Structures are given as structure tokens and as C-alpha cells.
């Protein structure tokens, strides 16, 4: 047997052993991309269950941990790839003032999908590469849309369908159906359906959260303070040229008053006074008709403290004329 001497291990061999050892520890520390995302979605599910009107505080979202390691999910830059992952994990759209439309409203492509902008315009920016990696590997992400400072509506899982380098953006699918729809042969009806699903999946939850928060989670007519029974009613309907998804085009209403407003049983004058349709003034029915509708005549809306969030008088006037015509 040949004797073994310490000098028999050359510096090159020692370096190779050290590199192999370091690489092994590094690989052991890298979490599985899918498992991290599954854990993130469970974390968000738990937060959403406790949320009365569908929005989450960034401070709560960022309590996420995976295998004892803290991983932030919402960061200032908008696109977030933790150092231990190879692809982007979350994306974020910033909060906008009450009278301005959220950025995603104008970020819808001709196919009806949400478009998410690059970080800057350089396609090779690390954040854009991280998004591209998620797209190529079909890894799901979480999308956070700001509704107030430090407050977000979370949409998850979402997937990046394709990249549009000319517009510096990625097309985002908000559900499984959008994920697999054939975009190469979209009929006008199918395109309209994809766009409608985008509004249902993203526009409506964001609009509701913004409006309910502005009205302090109360019905503007009856002051009911149970967020689970409140809706964000449009003054001018969604899809109309003036029907923008902005807080001044919304009213926080309980479900009965939302339905009555949409059915023109109740109207709101530009001076914020509630009117009752003449056709139901003399009706005889149960206590809901009497107390819930008829006694609303002459009531004044409770409006947000923030002036920019208050109902737009011009929109109220247009809508009140429709109420009068229907009455």
C-alpha cells in the first residue's frame, strides 16, 4: 500500500474539492420554483380569507416565509425575483389617485389580455429577463394591483403568455382559460369574451376595493357597515364612454340599494339627494320596501372625505336623467 502524504493533494485538486462542496451547498439551498409558488399561493389564500373587501396590506403579504426563510413578495421596483430563484415571482402595479384610471386599464392588448410593461425599455434588463424566464418555463406568478398606499388587490396565479418587444411588454393571462386560449385565431366574439374576463378578473375587484375604501366600507345610502354586503356601483355603466373605472364614477352601496339603483327604483340627484321612483312610492309590501326603499326619499349620500374621491356631479346628472326617463 502506498503511503498517503498531505502533499499528494495538489492546489488544483484542493480548489476543485472546495468548489464542488460550495456548489453542493448552494444547490441544496436553492428552493424548488414550483414549491415556492405553491406556498406563496397558500399564504395569499389565508390572507384573502380574512380580507373583508378583497385587498391586502403589503406588510401582511410580506410576512411570507418558505422553509424558515423570509421572502418578500411586494417590492418597490414592481418586478420581483428573489435571489434564490431563477424566474420572477411577483409583479406589482402602483397605486393611482382616485380620479385617475389604474395603469392596467390602458394596458390591454388587442387580444384582450392585460399587458405588463418592461422595467424600462432594455429587454436585457435583469428584471425583464426574470419575467421572460417565467414565461418560457410557464411558471405562475402573483400580480398585485395598488388600491391605496400599502394596499393591494392580489390576482393569482397569473401566467405570461407572450412578449411584445415593440411595445416593451408581456401579455398576461389572469386564469387558466386565458392561459390556454388560442390567440392565433381569435374571432371577434372570442376576443370580446377574453376582454370581458379580464375586466371581471381584475377590473371589478380593483374597482370594488378602491371604492369601498374611499367610503370607509359603508353604504352611501343606508350606512350599512358590513363590507361583505357592499358593492361598488358604477354611476355611468362600465363600457360607456364616461364609465371609467375611477372612484368618482363609483358609489359604495349595499346589495339591495345597488340593485335598486341599477333598476332605477332609486336615483341620486347631482346634489347627492336620493329620489324614489314614483311607481313604488304607493306600493304596499313588507318592511324592506318601506324601510329599505321608500324611506330613502330625501336622504343624502354619505360621501368620502377626500375631495378627489367624491361622486362626479356631471356623471350623477347624466345618470339621474336616465332615472327620470325610466320613472
Structural commentary:
The chain folds into 2 domains: 29-210, Roll (PUA domain-like), CATH 2.30.280; 218-326, no CATH class. Strands 1, 4, 5, 6, 7, 8 and 9 form a 7-stranded mixed β-sheet that branches. The termini are far apart. The protein has helices at 11-29, 33-49, 58-61, 126-136, 176-180, 188-214, 255-262, 278-281, 287-293, 313-326; strands at residues 56-57, 65-66, 69-70, 79-80, 90-93, 114-117, 141-148, 151-164, 169-173, 230-234, 250-254, 266-268, 274-276. The longest helix has 27 residues, at 188-214. With 327 residues, it is an alpha+beta fold.
Compact overview of the structure:
With about 325 residues, the protein is α+β, with helices and mostly antiparallel strands.
Give the ordered list of helices and strands: HHEHEEEEEHEEEHHEEHEEHHH
Using the CA coordinates, give the radius of gyration.
26 Å
Judged by helices, strands and strand pairing, the structural class is alpha+beta
- End-to-end separation: 107 Å
CATH top level class name of the largest domain = Mainly Beta
Q: Helical segment tally? A: 10
Helix content, binned percent: 25-40%
For the report, how would you describe the main beta sheet? 7 strands, mixed
What's the domain count?
2
Number of strands: 13
Would you identify the CATH architecture of the largest domain?
Roll
Unreliable segments (pLDDT under 50, ≥5 consecutive)?
1-28
Global outline: elongated
Amino acid at each position: 500500500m502506498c503511503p498517503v502524504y498531505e502533499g499528494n493533494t495538489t492546489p488544483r485538486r484542493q480548489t476543485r474539492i472546495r468548489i464542488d462542496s460550495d456548489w453542493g451547498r448552494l444547490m441544496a439551498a436553492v428552493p424548488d420554483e414550483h414549491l415556492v409558488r405553491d406556498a406563496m399561493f397558500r399564504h395569499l389564500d389565508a390572507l384573502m380569507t380574512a380580507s373583508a373587501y378583497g385587498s391586502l396590506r403589503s406588510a401582511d403579504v410580506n410576512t411570507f416565509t418558505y422553509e424558515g426563510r423570509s421572502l418578500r413578495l411586494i417590492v418597490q421596483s414592481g418586478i420581483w425575483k428573489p435571489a434564490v430563484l431563477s424566474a420572477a415571482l411577483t409583479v406589482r402595479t402602483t397605486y393611482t389617485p382616485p380620479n385617475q384610471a389604474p395603469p392596467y386599464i390602458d394596458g390591454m392588448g388587442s387580444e384582450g389580455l392585460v399587458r405588463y410593461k418592461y422595467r424600462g425599455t432594455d429587454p436585457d434588463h435583469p428584471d425583464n429577463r426574470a419575467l421572460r424566464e417565467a414565461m418560457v418555463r410557464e411558471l405562475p406568478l402573483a400580480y398585485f394591483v395598488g388600491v391605496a398606499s400599502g394596499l393591494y388587490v392580489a390576482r393569482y396565479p397569473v401566467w405570461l403568455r407572450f412578449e411584445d418587444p415593440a411595445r416593451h411588454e408581456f401579455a398576461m393571462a389572469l386564469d387558466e382559460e386565458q392561459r390556454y386560449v388560442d390567440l392565433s385565431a381569435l374571432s371577434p366574439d372570442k376576443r370580446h369574451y377574453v376582454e370581458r374576463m379580464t375586466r371581471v378578473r381584475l377590473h371589478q375587484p380593483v374597482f370594488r376595493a378602491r371604492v369601498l375604501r374611499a367610503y370607509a366600507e359603508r353604504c352611501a345610502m343606508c350606512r350599512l357597515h358590513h363590507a361583505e354586503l357592499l358593492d361598488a356601483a358604477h354611476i355611468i355603466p362600465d363600457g360607456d364612454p364616461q364609465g371609467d373605472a375611477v372612484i368618482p364614477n363609483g358609489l359604495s352601496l349595499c346589495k339591495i340599494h345597488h340593485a335598486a339603483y341599477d333598476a332605477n327604483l332609486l336615483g341620486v340627484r347631482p346634489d347627492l339627494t336620493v329620489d324614489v321612483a314614483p311607481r313604488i312610492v304607493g306600493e304596499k309590501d313588507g318592511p324592506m320596501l318601506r324601510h329599505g326603499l321608500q324611506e330613502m326619499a330625501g336622504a343624502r349620500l354619505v360621501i368620502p372625505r377626500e375631495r378627489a374621491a367624491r361622486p362626479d356631479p356631471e356623471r350623477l346628472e347624466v345618470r339621474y336623467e336616465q332615472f327620470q326617463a325610466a320613472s
